[in-house]
Amino acid sequence: MVPIHIHTNTVCLLAGAVEACQRNIKFNGSVACSKVESHLADARVYMLTNPKEFDVVDLDPYGSPSVFLDSAVQSVVDGGMLMCTATDMAVLCGANGEVCYSKYGSYPLRGKYCHEMALRILLACIESHANRYKRYIVPVLSVQMDFYVRVFVRIYTSASAMKNTPLKLSYVYQCTGCDAFHLQPIGRTVSKNTSVRYLPGFAPVVPQECSHCQKKFNMGGPIWSAPIHDQEWVTNILSDVKSMKDRYPAYDRISAVLTTISEELPDVPLFLSLHNLCATLKCTSPSAVIFRSAVINAGYRISGTHVNPLGLKSDAPMEVIWDIMRCWVKNHPVKAQPADQPGSVILAKEPVLQANFARAVASLSKAQAKKVARFLPNPERHWGPKLRAGRQITSKHISLLGEEKVNGCLSHQDSELDAKRQKIEKLEDAPAES
């Protein structure tokens, strides 16, 4: 196996980083010395000059990996794995939509599902780069945790299989009033005898105004709307991790994430937020078990998501979801709201489906039933993204680092400034040489 790990803060050449790599290689013994090499080169050029050379490529830059993707998809062997991390979450989650489009070719939406959308934007971007070289990706694991997204994809070469890419991508319409979302597939196929024709997707999937609350839609994407995990692969990895529990210092975290992913509905892109539904209607929230039971009793599937403890994936259409919430509000009345509010418009309609809130057997996942931890607390106080190297620490960073650490850094910076000032004064007072 020939792996390559690209871990760079900038594209520039850093000799110090290579020296650190060499020290780490020696520290890991003779086996590492015989198998691991470090190079002082531009990562993009190095990958481009070694096409289909590496079994595994790991991109882990500080910020966006977009500048490395074109060369990375060319450097992986057929069936090899590309692992990619993106830490520019503000961009991917919709804070700067135009920047996200320029880097990833997709426009993000600021919904409750924005972190999963970030994963799907990254996958769509990798697929786009791979398609230029008659290649395509197969995701095996896609994770959002802490303050970054990380994807593991296999890369294959096939001009015919590459034609299926439009079937795996969709645009997203999100209502500006009730946050209901709908997916618009880019392509479709029509089979006739033994031939398959590739055609544009049928449109539009939504009217000009939301059928639930009469508000307009925002459009985002395209995103990867096919499965983002290989469930069999995830199950096998989870089993292996459990069998070697003592070898993983972060076992609790790894098993929690993999357990939650193993229970996700694989064919349902994005997710609902129960609290967001209730915020729209201005009503009290049913428990997750009660809501899950109502969806299951209506004949649909539902699961959690590893991205958000309050997120729920379901194949139930929004008409069914709102009918369930209307039935809930009938038993738990809300205060009168202005008639033009999205919640008022939704509640003004009578439910077509009469929801059954009786406890369903499958309302708890296997992990929940066994009380297996799925979402762990933060490992320390003030848990958050750290500062970029070289940034000067000021009082505004208290929320990131904590008051004690910031005050300590500020006093250290003040002492350094005093020392520099004294040195300058000594130089100025020193007699000039003749």
Overview features:
Rossmann fold, alpha+beta, single chain, 16 helices, 434 residues, 3-stranded antiparallel beta sheet, 13 strands, 4 domains, 5-stranded mixed beta sheet, 19% strand
Report on this model:
It is a single chain. This protein is globular. The termini are far apart. By secondary structure, it is α+β, with helices and mostly antiparallel strands. The longest helix is centred in the last third of the chain and has 27 residues, at 403-429. The protein has a 5-stranded mixed beta sheet. The protein has 4 domains: 1-41, no CATH class; 44-229, Vaccinia Virus protein VP39 (Rossmann fold), CATH 3.40.50; 231-258; 272-370, Phenylalanyl-tRNA Synthetase, Chain B, domain 1. α4 packs across α7 (114-131). It is 38% helix and 19% strand. The protein has helices at residues 15-27, 30-35, 43-48, 66-75, 89-92, 97-104, 114-131, 231-243, 251-262, 274-281, 288-297, 318-331, 342-347, 366-369, 398-401, 403-429, and strands at residues 3-6, 54-59, 76-86, 135-145, 148-157, 169-175, 181-185, 187-192, 195-200, 217-224, 272-273, 302-303, 311-314.
